[in-house]
Prior knowledge:
Two copies of one chain form a homodimer.
Chain A: H1 3-20, H2 22-31, H3 36-54, H4 65-83, H5 85-90, H6 96-107, H7 123-151, H8 154-162, H9 175-199, H10 204-215, H11 233-246, H12 250-257, H13 261-266, H14 268-292, H15 296-311, H16 326-338, H17 351-369, E1 378-379, E2 382-383, H18 386-410, H19 417-428, H20 449-463, H21 467-473, H22 476-480
Amino acid sequence: MNLGIVIKVLGKLLILEALLMIPSLLIALYLGEPVIIPFAASIALTFTTGYALSRFKSQSNRLKAKEGLSIVATGWLLASVFGSLPFIFSGLVPSVVDAFFETVSGLTTTGATIVTDIEILPKALLFWRSFTHWIGGMGILVFTIALLPTLGVGGFQIFRAESPGPVTDKIVPRIKDTAKILYVTYIALTLLEIFLLKLGGMSWYESALHTFGTVGTGGFSSRNGSIGAFDSTYIHLVISVFMVLSGTNFALHYALIKGKWRDVVKNPELKLYLGIILSATALIGFNLILASQVEVGLAFRDAFFQVSSIITTTGYSTVDFDQWSTFAKAILFVLMFIGGSSGSTGGGIKNIRILVLVKLVKREVTRIFHPRAVIPIKIGDKAAPREMVSGITSFFVLYILIFVIGTLVISLENISLESAASAVAVTLGNVGPGFGSIGPTETFAGFSNFSKLFLSLLMLLGRLELFTIIALIAPKAWRNEV
Amino acid sequence: MNLGIVIKVLGKLLILEALLMIPSLLIALYLGEPVIIPFAASIALTFTTGYALSRFKSQSNRLKAKEGLSIVATGWLLASVFGSLPFIFSGLVPSVVDAFFETVSGLTTTGATIVTDIEILPKALLFWRSFTHWIGGMGILVFTIALLPTLGVGGFQIFRAESPGPVTDKIVPRIKDTAKILYVTYIALTLLEIFLLKLGGMSWYESALHTFGTVGTGGFSSRNGSIGAFDSTYIHLVISVFMVLSGTNFALHYALIKGKWRDVVKNPELKLYLGIILSATALIGFNLILASQVEVGLAFRDAFFQVSSIITTTGYSTVDFDQWSTFAKAILFVLMFIGGSSGSTGGGIKNIRILVLVKLVKREVTRIFHPRAVIPIKIGDKAAPREMVSGITSFFVLYILIFVIGTLVISLENISLESAASAVAVTLGNVGPGFGSIGPTETFAGFSNFSKLFLSLLMLLGRLELFTIIALIAPKAWRNEV
């Protein structure tokens, strides 16, 4: 392996992270909060380590699959370790493991927290906490469009096969253009939401924080009551809509701006995604009305918010949905697995994969009646390549497998099976809060250190679309056996 | 469709079922129980209906896929309706829906019950109840080897590709021979277990009943405490071992008798199946010792019994495993999905499919490092045909899909999510008892009529390997679209 290039790239990543901590330091300085030294020390340590690593010499600049995988996996791990320094140095988070968990949760845009009282933390620290969502959300876009194609991993194949607009089959020669378009869209969404939230009466500071949590589909809030702390239907709706937008393929936003309405309207993943949101909102809304005589408007507002939050894997809440009926909770549980769209900041299995999987079942039924027919799986008008279909089924199997093994591991905590299963579903799917002991009014603080580290691994696994990490930790035989 | 042949075959099926009720009538006569008239009436009604249908004229005797599917699905439905007559006529079961549920549960070898006090029922009725397991277990063998090949359905492809010994690629020309071998094995297992249980101090009657429940992997008992009512380690072990044997591919029993040890030892599905049983028993055993200071011997005896019972989808219990730790329950929950081996009477997803699915994941990892390699999925030494692999992934996706939709439907009962999910898992997997409100000391009596009928459908779906029924109820477009 070309270790030199790996270390060099990792060094540059740390330098970038150090720079990204500066806004938080400035806020601390401006407000005179007692986290000035922790931030200064974190920046200094991260920058010098990064600089030292970036001076590493490498024979060549060519990346092979192995190096690409190592950079992605180690990069996320290092960024999480150094990103947790402000928490550690501040002394305001119970332990090093807690600080690491919180940072992984931030960067992977999960939003699961170990902080039991958020509102007593310094504003600069909360800014950094939420800013990791924004960085992570952007990072996803980079990885998706820049690194994954060189690895030929399923996730990117989907993105390529599916995306209308800027991302075509020949994406590699113009990665930079594509990245630029996506960044501009991401930043535009960010600025627009900050502005709209400010309009609704939030401070600039809280508008920014909650926007980071929304567009990155993260879910960290500055309030213990999450979005429920803001008693404003306007704010609830703005955040709902922006969660849905952030869980949509970013290439579609670009297509919209370019006036390519038909591409957007005909997009099969978008149809499925919006269809699920609508159906789930309707089912939960009616259920709320029947089960607890909530006012019709409020029922659908709350249903829409929670559905958007969970399916996009954001994890904000306006009500304690853990108190909802079993039926409503069961729907949310399913949404935790479905997740957002390909090419979005949302996690989970993703709608395009669900679409292909359902088509596989349909094809098998057709085959019973036409055993000799060769039937391609179509997405919209295009036939999906065989490797893509097999990549999707493997992904699905692995996702369920990790969910099952994860639940077994977490069930050792002796919380209820529902709590354990949802803890795994929400970390693997990068959602945030789940049910029972990790419901919207609870935190992950009660877990053992082992479980916190294990759940951190699940967040990284989910965020990097499973195979990046599995490939690195898989037995050697799996790699070489051809 | 050639309706004539379908009706004719269904008629013969009912005649057979009427004959199979005779032993129960004889027991009622011998014991002078008040169910003589109910049984006589059931036999008369079933026989005359069957006779009338069997006189139907058909132009040809050729079965096409559509006819085959209709016979299998309608056959199981009719057998369940007529099989429930003794319960209905006896007046000892609360409602017609309950009688239907109990009979579907018996024939599909599920063992989920709506009877809250089993021990007050007449012995002849309990005999019929358990005998449906034995009939269903045998029926599975018939369908697997005789009907499914003509349909080209995935389930049979597995059986064919996997089975060493009597079942080879050219099974169709000698269905009768294969059927004979399997029946002889089934009957031999039955007689052996009855004898061994009698040796352990059970009456002939209870030995027979519990043997029907074991070899059919059903789970109906004549005791409210299931096998726990028998305070004998010998009996627990005999039933455990026979559950494991009944969840094994019957072709392997035949290979053993023929002295083909190497075929058996090298069988990859058997290795996985036994490996899972051993690991699960060890994990639960140690967990029981650590969690509740149970004596070592008892811990492993109870762990082995419950593990064998759940993975083979039998559903007997010797302890109330719903009181076990979350970890132990989580393991059992996973076993409900794994199920028995192909070509056995066990239900669930089945080990051979799990094996292939894990290999798919492994292949995807290899592909990351060797993107252009063409890697076949191997079972033992043979490469699995592509249609088989795609049939298995479709089966898995459909299984999870039905589980998810089923849980949503059952969660409307407003029981806990754990109870709802396990109710669906144990009916779809033909297991029997689950967790919470349907735990081993509880019954399905509390569900609404709608849920009981829905769960009956799930039992039939699981038993007929999903696609048989899905193909019949799927929209026409799925069939014709090529």
